[in-house]
Specification:
Length: 237
Amino acid sequence: MRPSGRDLSEMRPVSIETGFTKHAEGSCLIKIGDTHVLCTATIEDRVPPFIKGSGLGWVTAEYGMLPRATNTRMRREASAGKQGGRTVEIQRLIGRALRAGVDRVALGERQITVDCDVIQADGGTRCAAITGGWVALRLAVNKLMKAGDVISDPLLDPVAAVSCGIYAGQPVLDLDYPEDSEAGVDGNFIMTGSGKLIEVQMSAEGSVFSRDQMDQLLTLAEKGVGELVAAQKAATA
């Protein structure tokens, strides 16, 4: 039995509220269970120096957690004078994931920055950030297309992510914090709407896992991502 009472292949409730902030070109508040992430997308008519003049666009991301997103207060990274290693790793992951679904030629020489701020954490924050980040990106690109600044749609396929793991010896979908903190195996699966893999992060945390178990987790991930993509499409329709 899972602590939440969910079935092994059952996602937490998912909701996506678009237009959550006034000023960003694209924004949403994504809630996956008790994990809540605010995602905003900002369009800028510039690109990093290493692609300047290439005609290619760029999508990047920043990620952070509010001090009381967790059970105990975390010190703001700004007050420490630098980002932690976990933060840097996650925001690079989000950027890589979102770029995988973008035609950078069609985007043109501009940058879209997706900011993902965790308001409340209960497991799977990076996955929620990627899933909500794509929604914010979709809304920002819609504005570019409506204004005629982009001729063809640069978003090739939705991008979403979900966690899966081995908890109490069973493969489970969409780990919440009680499961994530005790899972013997933990994985994050980032996929496109058409079912293609972008990135898989898998690690044994106290027990090893077999090829068969990994295949079971991938099957669960495909189901979860399918549900998340359906939620993304409904939110941006």
